[in-house]
Here is the input.
Amino acid sequence: MANTRRDFLKSSALGVTVSFLAPQFVARSAWGANLTPGKILVVLQLAGGNDTVNTFVPYADSRYRSLRPNLAIADASILKVDSRMGFHPSMSALQTLYENR
Here is the structure.
């Protein structure tokens, strides 16, 4: 189904409206909160942004390659920590931190 100009204009108008109302809603919620001294827990869930198994790779586990035939990182690219686990190739800064304890 092709998008029409009318569909584009409707979704654009909705996006603009939401973008103006959302900051006000968030600000009112924050000011209306009961602010008491103490510890505050902030939880962020970033769905789809990180794949834990490909961040810290269990390369020695045979199930890793069999369950991820298209996503598995090549052994030569893995930044090995020990004989079983290693970091994703783009995590060299984290590997350095890990090695320096």
Remarks:
- The beta strands are 56-57, 79-80, 86-87.
- The helical segments are 5-32, 52-55, 62-67, 92-99.
